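Q: Structure tokens for this one, please.
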Amino acid sequence: MDHDVDISAAKVGIAASILLLGLRTLAAQAFLLVIPLAAGVGSVVYLINRPDRVSNLVNWRSRRLETASVTLPKSVAQLLPTLTFVVLAGFVVAIHRAGTRTNLVYLLTATVGVAILAQLLFVDDGHLTPAIILFEILVAGTVLRLAPLYVTPGYVGIDNWTHATVFIDGIVRTGSLGPLAESKYIMAPIYHIIGATGELFFGSTRDGLYLTLGLFVPLSALFIYGTGKLLIPERWALLATAFLVFSEQFIRWGMYIIPTSLGLALFLVVFYAVTRIFVGYTERWVVALLLAASLAIVFIHQVSTAVTIVFLGIATLVAVTLGLTGRSAFEGDRTAGALGGVFLVTLVVTVASWANTPFPGQGTFLWTEISVVQEAMSTKAGFLNLASTGSEASQMIGGPVETGTLLAKTVPYIELLGFGLLLLAAVVGGLHMLGWKHVPDLTYTYLLAGGGLFVAVFGLSLFGFRALLPTRWIAFLYVSMALLGAIGLYYLSRSGHRRVVLVVFVLVSVGYPTSMAVAEKATLDNPVFDDQFKRFAYTEAEIATVDTIREMKPPASGATVASDHPYIGLIERYGRYEERAINLELTQKGAATTADAVIYREYQSSGPVTFHRAEGSDLTQVPAAVETAVCPPDWNVAYANDQAKICTPTGGTP
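A: Here is the predicted structure, written as tokens:
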């Protein structure tokens, strides 16, 4: 590599960040400010701490740890592991007593993260035991997910009500894959087979899901630890692991357990195997592991498959290109052959699978997705056509409460603080990798793959192109960002000015886990900012109401049920009403619907739920008297409990 390519890239990054800041004047989204600021500051931090290139990878592998630049007193350092486990115990007690995650529980979550990161960033080698830190990270990752899952009635999220109560339970009940027959998962059944096996072993769908996949997802972080150990000293490999375990997206998919979760966990295996091959380990078992993980993803989840193919394709392209030019660090032919073979097999199997995957009412999955992409490009794409400004959003009423307050305006930045800090560290790490001479293949693969995922998540969304489900891709982006971020802080610990290192390390150790702990996607069951973000978990009373409406007006009767979003997700999937679960339309006079029943729940009066604005209505917000608007006084009350009630129009059948 060019000796100064990292310096040039940093200067380009600063210039690009300044230009991108101009977009903030055209749209109000927080990420338009956070991303260029984080990338620009990361580039500046790298430049003012001149590169300290280490070209001997063998020496890196032989080093057990790397001393932190700023260290805590011995007495404090020795207390931190104990503090971690004491706080975790307090977390379990607090969540058990409250029955949900409260602000105290989130404070304890953040404290655990701060204690672990403080050990990695501020404890010297003599008082740091890697095995204990790894144990802390894995125990924390497991407890922080399973404890809230077990106190939450039913499931967290929407899709898993179908996966668990329809597919997994159906497989166990029928003893076959018949329940998947008309869905796209008939060609991707591994998740459901594991869930069904767990249900048979543990005796319930919830236990079977939580004690198999619910355990595997947080424990899969071991693969990012293994990846890091191939490149950087153990302390910083542990830091990469902690970055991933405490990230909002990894927390999200560790609690919202659907095929995406398993696909993400196995992607970590792919990431590890590709890295191991690039640094010279092309043993047969490594190639076999890569192939097995890649093919397993194909039969688990379509979005995860697309991400995996992109990553393998980039790795193969880099290996072939550098191999042909003689710039590969190790055995270029073997590396390119191994990666190319796995990529081609995975691609062929994917195309064959998708071409035979049914997509209800629309033919096969492959051709349907091609049509969706073509339609999105021709009708929905447009500069700054953001999700919150689209035509569908304009039909919604409700949502965040008191959006004009100072807190409401700062919430997006609190949420993105952790992401911004990780991006800053990842930019430093990426620039530092550009200065490496020993693994150019891996450098280009990481940077091109990370850049590609970044464009898929943020770049295409900027132009209104969301057909590829960018909200699912972002979790995979965190994998490369976690490792690059650890590399970035490792570089700063060795080359940075003491004051710069201290500021960055303090910000990261406190700001990263705290911000991630309260982020929207990490708190779907009970958001910290509950007037801004919807709750995607349901109470016993809300679930009982769906059970009741299903008995009163069975889905097979063709009945239609209306309510708020996200409650209609529960009615649709758990209630089995499918497309006959509709978002209630409101006018100034109240409900305007032809539905056979409407469900009101107390959460509609306090939470940021959304309804549809009735056609022709100029209603701009949900009426203050929500209960009266949803269930007018002259309607029949067919059922009521302490949190919800079912109403039917006057003259209808109760």
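A few notes: Residues 51-64 have pLDDT under 50 and may be disordered. The radius of gyration is 26 Å.
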